[in-house]
């Protein structure tokens, strides 16, 4: 795709600005909502529900993604940001326990906004920036978002303690308005809409599918070993539980560096090879974090911080580069659901295993599953790599509106 008048270069800082603004507001509001519910109710269980409200819409990613493909994507991004910003002002009415339903409703709206905007951004990017810039920009966006995950919770907690939850809500609304302005300035050619057409997506092409599987496995295993890593810190190393926050910051720093390096790596490697490299690094980080040796645990946090986002950037870029633009919203949202939804099962499963069998069985299982996912990509890594411009949707996927249209053979792998 040839972009006119150098507008692809103009769009790059706009997308980065959105990542910073929305990343700050989303991270600050997510923490504040949990603390706010806890302060009003005194219940940890009710506080946890705020996080569940944000996560729940991820399970409906394919449905929301199909909506993205039926609407003008840039206008959708502007509209959803402004609607959510308006909704945040309703939190100024939250004063007591009986008002908590407002908080839950707004956080559920935040979750829907995350899914819609993530899919719409992913679908808009290939028509807004040059193909050679896509992988690099995805890495930069990941670094910006990870930076905000470190800065925003501290800022949000401080503002909540100083001025209360209403001040945080107004601040986060301002970041959404800023995001809407930046979205409106983006210049991109969008594909024509076919609102009455039904498209059934049964599978992704092999290299893209394997890249998404590696990312999904890595993300799931990051949750699966959470309890094991806490056990290593508090029992084997004898450190206070707060030291986990130090390791989380180190992993976040690794993610920032990893995002900055991702673009250069994707200039030299195909997405599948880059995903494999990220998966291997993350597996090494998992093993190091299980050692009862402080330098190893610290190094493991940094290495895992680099490897985990590389798998996600690889999957994101593979989908964007290899999916027909008119299907990109639903394919991106489906890939996001497949990547992050398993966390809901992985975290309690890992906690239960640690309670029964201890630390190392959980770490070994996580490493084996991750290495299996990486090894499954070997047929695509050994060849010339993923070809640019190959559709992620196989040619036997048909578009139609009648009964039986869009059927494809069942995936056997």
Write the layout of secondary structure elements.
Blueprint: H1 7-41, H2 44-55, H3 61-68, H4 73-88, H5 100-128, H6 131-163, H7 165-185, E1 198-199, H8 206-224, H9 226-236, H10 243-268, H11 271-289, H12 294-321, H13 328-340, H14 343-357, H15 359-375, H16 378-381, E2 399-400
Antiparallel strand pairs: 1-2
* Count of folded domains: 2
How helical, in percent, are the residues? over 70%
**CATH topology-level name of the largest domain:** Growth Hormone, Chain: A
Q: With helices defined by DSSP (H or I, 4 residues minimum), what is the helix count?
A: 16
Sheet with the most strands, sense and barrel status: 2 strands, antiparallel
Cα shape: globular
| CATH architecture label of the largest domain | Up-down Bundle
Strand element count: 2
H/E topology pattern: HHHHHHHEHHHHHHHHHE
The CATH class of the largest domain:
Mainly Alpha
Strand order of the largest sheet: 1-2
CATH superfamily of the largest domain: MFS general substrate transporter like domains
Q: Over the alpha carbons, how many angstroms does the gyration radius reach?
A: 21 Å
Strand content: under 5%
Structural class: mainly alpha
Unreliable residue runs: 1-6, 195-202, 383-413
Mean pLDDT score: 86
End-to-end gap? 33 Å
């Amino acid at each position: 795709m040839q972009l006119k008048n150098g507008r692809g270069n103009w769009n790059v800082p706009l997308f980065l600005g959105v990542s910073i603004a929305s990343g700050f507001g989303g991270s600050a509001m997510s923490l504040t909502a949990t603390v706010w519910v806890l302060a009003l109710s005194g219940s940890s269980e009710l506080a946890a529900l705020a996080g569940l409200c944000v996560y729940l819409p991820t399970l409906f990613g394919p449905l929301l993604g199909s909506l993205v493909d039926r609407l003008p994507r840039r206008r959708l991004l502007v509209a959803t940001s402004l609607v959510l910003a308006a909704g945040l002002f309703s939190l100024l009415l939250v004063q007591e326990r009986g008002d908590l339903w407002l908080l839950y409703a707004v956080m559920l709206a935040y979750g829907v906004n995350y899914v819609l905007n993530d899919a719409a951004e992913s679908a808009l990017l290939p028509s807004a920036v040059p193909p050679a810039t896509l992988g690099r920009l995805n890495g930069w966006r990941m670094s910006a978002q990870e930076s905000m995950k470190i800065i925003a919770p501290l800022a949000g907690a401080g503002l909540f303690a100083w001025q209360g939850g209403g001040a945080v809500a107004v601040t986060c609304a301002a970041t959404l308005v800023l995001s809407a302005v930046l979205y409106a300035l983006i210049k991109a050619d969008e594909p024509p809409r076919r609102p009455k057409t039904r498209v059934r997506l049964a599978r992704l092409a092999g290299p893209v599918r394997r890249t998404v599987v590696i990312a999904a496995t890595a993300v799931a295993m990051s949750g699966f070993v959470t309890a094991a890593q806490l056990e290593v810190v508090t029992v084997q190393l004898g450190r206070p539980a707060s030291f986990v926050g130090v390791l989380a910051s180190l992993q976040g720093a690794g993610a920032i560096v990893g995002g900055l390096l991702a673009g250069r790596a994707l200039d030299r490697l195909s997405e599948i090879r880059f995903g494999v490299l990220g998966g291997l690094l993350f597996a090494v980080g998992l093993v190091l974090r299980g050692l009862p040796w402080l330098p190893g645990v610290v190094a493991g946090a940094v290495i895992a911080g680099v490897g985990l986002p590389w798998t996600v950037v690889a999957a994101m870029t593979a989908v964007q580069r290899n999916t027909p633009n008119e299907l990109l919203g639903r394919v991106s949202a489906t890939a996001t659901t497949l990547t992050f939804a398993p966390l809901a099962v992985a975290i309690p499963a890992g906690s239960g295993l640690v309670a029964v069998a201890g630390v190392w069985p959980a770490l070994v299982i996580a490493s084996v599953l991750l290495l299996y996912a990486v090894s499954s990509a070997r047929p695509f890594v050994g060849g010339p790599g993923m070809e640019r411009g190959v559709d992620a949707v196989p040619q036997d996927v048909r578009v139609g509106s009648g009964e039986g249209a869009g059927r494809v053979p069942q995936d056997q792998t």
